[in-house]
Design goal:
354 residues, alpha/beta, eight-stranded mixed β-sheet, 34% helix, 13% strand, globular, AB_hydrolase_fold, Peptidase S9 prolyl oligopeptidase catalytic domain-containing protein
Length: 354
């Protein structure tokens, strides 16, 4: 009997070790999913399919990897911001084109879409260090362009893209005007315990109470919670409260961390927003929240969606609620007629999540 129990214990231990070894060896395949199941790696469409004027831009990262991207121009006379968009972990930039088309229409902006290494037509294999290089290459390219206002480059990152964008904003306070985060996690370390509950005893982020014995073997921790507190630029947090992948509490923790040292933080949640569809379920309120944020922190914006402009003039009582701005920064405003309350645009705690 004792021999049988001993053999069982050895067997269980062996399976556990083999499982953990597989997780360590294959972790990039769990974090990065360049090809969706059943689909090809190639772009299913290009911006031309949606009648968007664009150019293919080829970049070279600091470590020599060749990267592909799209620069999509709103119009030759557009004086709005340029959005540097970082996508989620699965699929490629072509799968985000409908979102980008609507973004350009509503916000009157240019958009730069980067294919991470290993995604789309970019070469290489994804990793945290590599994608950080990729993001820097994209920003450096935008910063030297002569056909955009380089003082109004705004980073927009969703999910994994938010982690990428936070690192880039932290490292480039003089090149990035503002940061927008949507449904972003506190860290991959925390997400590991959510996706695979048994791992929470071995892996965890800065808020974890576990022993964190295997943190040292995680090659892409993406510890956004540790980074966001060092971002100096204004930050807009967009949180879908029905997010089925990243717990909404992660966005609230990111906001709470950021606002400790950055008074220019805004938090807006969307009760029906899920991980990938907050921009759809949020409707007009979603785009108005972003527009108000850009109006304040991208002051070169000269035009906006016609209906939105009409609603501003007819329904909105503009109130100065934010004092102490720099001369280049207009006073913060809120518009009750647009469904954006004053409390959503001040730097205090806004939405309890319990």
């Amino acid at each position: 009997m004792a021999g049988w129990l001993k053999a069982l214990a050895y067997g269980a231990g062996g399976v556990a070790v083999a499982g953990l070894a597989a997780l360590v060896a294959l972790q990039e395949r769990l974090v990065y999913v360049p090809v969706l199941p059943g689909l090809a790696r190639a772009y299913p469409i290009t911006p031309a399919r949606l009648r968007l004027a664009y150019e293919d831009v080829w970049l070279r990262s600091a470590d020599g990897v060749r990267l592909h991207s799209w620069f999509i121009r709103h119009s030759p006379t557009c004086r709005g911001p340029t959005i540097l968009f970082f996508q989620e972990n699965a699929g490629n930039i072509a799968h985000r084109l409908e979102f980008v088309r609507l973004m350009m229409q509503r916000l009157q902006c240019n958009v730069f879409m980067l294919s991470y290494r290993g995604y789309g037509e970019s070469e290489g294999y994804p990793s945290q260090k590599g994608i950080t290089y990729d993001a820097q290459a994209a920003l450096d390219h935008l910063a030297q362009r002569k056909d955009i206002d380089t003082s109004c480059i705004v980073i927009f990152g969703r999910s994994l893209g938010g982690a990428v964008g936070a690192v880039l904003a932290k490292n480039n306070p003089d090149k990035v005007a503002a940061l927008i985060l949507e449904n972003t996690f506190t860290s991959i370390l925390d997400m590991a315990g959510i996706m695979l509950p048994f791992l929470r005893w071995f892996i965890g982020g800065s808020t974890s109470k576990g022993p964190k014995l295997l943190n040292c073997v995680v090659r892409s921790p993406w510890s956004t919670l540790d980074i966001v507190g060092e971002v100096k630029q204004p930050i807009l947090f967009l949180s879908g409260l029905q997010d089925e992948l990243v717990p909404p509490s992660h966005m609230k923790m990111l906001y709470d961390k950021a606002v400790e040292h950055n008074r220019n933080c805004r938090f807006v949640d969307f009760p029906s927003g899920m991980h990938m569809d907050t921009w759809m379920s949020g409707g007009d309120r979603y785009w108005r929240a972003i527009q108000l944020f850009l109006d304040q922190y991208a002051p070169e914006v000269q035009s906006r969606d016609a209906s939105f402009k009409s609603e501003i003039s007819e329904d909105a009582k503009v109130v100065n609620i934010f004092r102490g701005c720099s001369p280049a920064c207009p006073a913060a405003t809120f518009a009750p007629g647009l469904g954006i309350s004053q409390s959503q645009f001040v730097h205090e705690q806004i939405y309890p999540l319990d």
